[in-house]
Design brief:
By secondary structure, the protein is α/β, with parallel strands linked by helices. The chain has one domain (6-236): UDP N-Acetylglucosamine Acyltransferase, domain 1, CATH 2.160.10. It has helices spanning 6-30, 33-45, 51-55, 57-82, 99-120, 125-133, and strands at 90-93, 137-138, 143-144, 147-148, 154-156, 161-162, 167-168, 171-174, 179-182, 185-187, 192-193, 198-199, 204-205, 210-211, 216-217, 222-223, 228-230, 235-236. The strands form four sheets. A six-stranded mixed β-sheet has the order 3-6-11-14-17-18, with no helix packed on it. Strands 2-5-10-13-16 form a five-stranded parallel β-sheet, covered by helices on one side. A hairpin with a 4-residue loop joins strand 17 and strand 18 (235-236). The longest helix is centred in the N-terminal third of the chain and has 26 residues, at 57-82. The radius of gyration is 22 Å and the shape is globular. The relative contact order is 0.09.
């Protein structure tokens, strides 16, 4: 049995790369159906033949934007969940022909626009539902602010707060070696992640940990239970007697 040559591999990768914009186009087009349906129903009741009808337009447009935003989150999340488009921790060749790398790229294509929306608008419970559809584990009474780069390999315990502008990474690119390293990030119960903190792949933040604003948790670093950390890289801040 002959092994596929480099030309065949490149051809396979090129074909797969074409699927990315097609998948994004189909999913995001599908997300517009609710607003199209809502517009059709609206036109049934309002003919826009009177002046006061036009006074309603700003409110109608605002509601329309809200419908599109919610449908974008929920429909894209359901599709990712339905087709089980997820990736596992490991080191992978960063090419379209690698199955895990391809799944990661597909998720990024669908998730990144939604992530940008979540950064701009507070979505409350819808945000939590969306993250769970992507495979993220979130405990009760937990507030997830900031940016989650890789939801399906990130987990939060209960009663934990993540501040604004904090970032949690689940992957690292190595462009020299053309690889992508994906690793799980685990955050325990009753933790506080300060605003602007950065958490790198493989980090473990145990229960009752406080991470100061702007701190950097390095790759695979473990923050021990009940302690307070701060700085770059994060180190224990001991309480003065």
């Amino acid at each position: 049995m002959t092994k596929p040559n480099n030309k065949t591999k490149k051809s396979s990768g090129s074909i797969k790369s074409i699927f990315i914009p097609i998948i994004a186009f189909l999913v995001f087009s599908l997300c517009l159906f609710p607003i199209v349906l809502a517009g059709k129903i609206l036109l049934y009741f309002i003919a826009f033949d009177k002046f006061w009808h036009f006074l309603l337009l700003p409110f109608i447009l605002y509601i329309g934007i809200a419908i599109v935003t919610v449908s974008l989150l929920l429909i894209s999340g359901v599709i990712i969940r339905l087709f089980n488009i997820r990736y596992e921790p490991g080191i992978y060749e960063y090419t379209f022909k690698n199955k895990t790398a391809f799944r990661w790229i597909v998720v990024c294509a669908l998730y990144t626009p939604c992530r940008k929306i979540l950064e701009m608008f507070p979505m409350g419970r819808i945000k939590i539902v969306y993250y769970k559809l992507l495979g993220m584990k979130i405990g009760k009474n937990t507030l997830v602010g900031g940016v989650i780069k890789d939801p399906c390999v990130t987990e939060f315990g209960e009663n934990t707060t993540m501040g604004e502008y904090a970032v949690i990474y689940g992957h690292i690119h190595n462009y020299e070696k053309e690889t992508i390293t994906i690793n799980k990030v685990s955050i325990g119960n009753n933790c506080i992640i300060g605003a602007g903190a950065i958490v790198m792949p493989g980090a473990v933040i145990q229960d009752n940990v406080t991470l100061a604003a702007g701190a950097l948790v390095t790759k695979n670093q473990v923050l021990e239970k009940g302690k307070t950390y701060g700085g770059v890289p994060a180190k224990e801040i001991k309480k003065e007697n």
